[in-house]
Amino acid sequence: MKLCQDAVNRANRLAKAFYYIADHGGFRDRGYSANRCTMATSTVLSILVLASIALLGGAFALWRRGGLRRQVTLMVVLALVAIANVAIWTIPDKHGNAPVDEIGSQ
């Protein structure tokens, strides 16, 4: 139980540090929960982009070594699905509103 609580405390400290960096002006009490939500979303989207790059790089390396064609294809398809998800959340519509921006306002 103590190990779990330590992990939660570290995650909270890390979230506060990210919020401080994103805020550029120190901690603000107003809107903290909404900003935490958008920060978590930004973190997830960033991890998705990094995972997509890693998948494409791994698929290329596996293809060059003569790996199984099915694994290479599945890695590329997974990377494309992840990139499509990031695009769906971040590309604005005709009114200029991106779905990721709507999360913090709710």
SSE topology string: HHHH
Number of domains: 2
Report the span from N to C terminus.
Answer: 34 Å
Strand content: under 5%
Q: What structural class do helix, strand and pairing data support?
A: mainly alpha
Shape: flat
Total helices: the number is 4
Indicate the percent of residues in helices: over 70%
Q: Count the strands?
A: 0
Structure overview:
Helix content is 79%, strand content 0%. The chain is an all-alpha fold. The protein has 2 domains: 1-30; 32-105. Residues 26-34 have low confidence and may be disordered.
Outline the fold blueprint.
Blueprint: H1 2-23, H2 32-64, H3 69-90, H4 99-105
Helix pairs in contact: 1-2, 2-3, 2-4
Key features?
2 domains, 0% strand, 106 residues, mainly alpha
Summarize the structure.
With 106 residues, this protein is mainly α. The protein has four helices and no strands. It has helices spanning 2-23, 32-64, 69-90, 99-105.
